[in-house]
Sequence to fold (301 residues):
Amino acid sequence: MKVKFIFLFTLYSLLFLFYPGDSELFHIFAFNRSLFSETSEVKKPVIHPIPVLKQNAQPFVTAESVYIADLASFTPVFEKSARTRLFPASTAKILTALVAHDIYKPEQIITIGQVVEDGQVMELVEGEKITIENLLYGLLVHSGNDAAYALADHYGRDKFIVKMNQKAQELHMKDSLFTNPAGLDEDNQYTTAFDLALAGRALLSNQYLSKIVSTKEIIISDVDFKYFHTLTNVNKLLGEIRGVGGLKTGYTELAGENLVSFYKRADGHDLIIIVLKSLDRFNDTTNLIQWIETNVDYIIL
Fold:
């Protein structure tokens, strides 16, 4: 009898705990069965292969400042005076593009006001109505100074410059200061190869903007199809060297030749290459790519 009582008590206790019915009072004491049905998955940490040098051979470049890094781990592969402050020229437009993407929508239409005609331009026309997206193509593909100022002036030039420097600080670009959206030479405007690697990485992580910088050539128009603009990428290596997917050129008399490049190796590893104040940015970058292929390998620690 005693055994039977214990058996029935145990049976009813289990039923109460696991099948409490509709009573809210019973549910307070009942087990939460959902906790037992869930299986917790332990996420394994992502381990990125690390680039290593096969030998100590140094690449030949004319550039005063160089920085090469693996994008996934942001491990430096080669650097030369990478923290030296130099004029950015049109590499400043990387920040202009990032800020424009933050404050505008691609389909937004703006009316072009006074047109800037200094340096490289996409030939905007005063009064032209054009989308932000097409201005971004003009900015990043054709490196149009008029596109840079159109994007800044519609928001308010001074406020836009503030946004550029705020974005630089967000990206930890500690040795950069921007005073205009096009990168035109001004004494208190500067950046470094290392900082531009941070900016370039941010742009490449944006699928929308990274598609634009990889465009070789495109024809865009205003919303009324009255004005058409043929835009050709200033980066001569795009489409000429396998694996080069943009990113941004720059040139002024004081800055020299600048080039920020995205390079995808055949083995799938992505690198960013920064060349500043070069005598021949395209030849320097070509030499650096050849050096990467010969001297850089990857290991998993």
Residues 2-37 form one domain. The longest strand covers residues 244-252.
